[in-house]
Give the backbone structure.
Amino acid sequence: MIGRTLVTGHAREAGGVAGQTTRSPGGVGPVDVAHAPTDIVQALPRVADDMVSRPGSAVSLLRTVVGVYLREAGGWMPTGAFLALLGALGVPVPQARTALSRVKQRGLLQAEAHDGVAGLALAPGAGAMLACGDRRIHEPRSMAADGEWCLIVFSIPEAMRDARHQLRKQLTWIGCGTVEAGVWICPDFLRGEVEDVVAGLGLSGHVVLFTARGLPAGPVAAGQVGQWWDLEGIAHLHRAFLEGQSGVPEGSAGAAESFAAYVGCIDAWRVIPYLDPGLPAELLPDDWPGPECIALFRRIREAHAGPARDFVLGTLASGGVPAGLDPARLGHSEEVR
């Protein structure tokens, strides 16, 4: 145990299962979201919905549009509006329709007609997931040097190995580190998300959470943190964001341009606040790129979020008809299959 430990739960079973993988499937650290194997992607639960598509792909861009704008639109948009918005991001109509079908299959959207107009609405339960994503994306937190840790201790029988596998996968996707097979760790401000994961998998009787203090700054503690989290992989995500987004203009050149810039920024960014748990600066390398990355994200948001919203509102007001298509086909008779 790390330093002085304050028990905040009641132990049921403790200890790990020897010989089990402690990191993400197939290697050390987070799954490569750009090239994740199909079986891993298909098995990911809704908690990982932000990470299952390659940033910049039609599905990922659609997922970003849904997360940023659909709730403000009342939870429903006509099919034509989705196609128009994706078209403004450079996604051709056939690929956009395919993306809509895939996101429906993942349980984020459902087909719903309003007054004879074909469209898609948020699926039941999706709003809560998006609200959690809002906090992660727009309010990245950092742990203080003297902050509390949450230790996750579990022992899950072999007969429940699928649930054990899902637990490890979901803990990885919300930013937890691996101390050993049955002991994971994260900043205590992530405790609520850990509790949601455990409850969602029906594993409350096999998992106990502890609050711990006493991990002092210094090379020994920093070395431990470097073993528990894939800091190199997380830093690579930050630097890739900096490289890809540094050229975004500091001011808006128009609503359409801001829409493309802002959605592209969110799409590239939204994985990072999940996998980076916000560790104390004192335990991170001196050249840690996280603060610079957060500053760039906030600069782009401040410059482009407003004009981007105006573009979406204008698209909805116009009926969301992509150029060159028959409005009657888009808004009134076609469903996404």
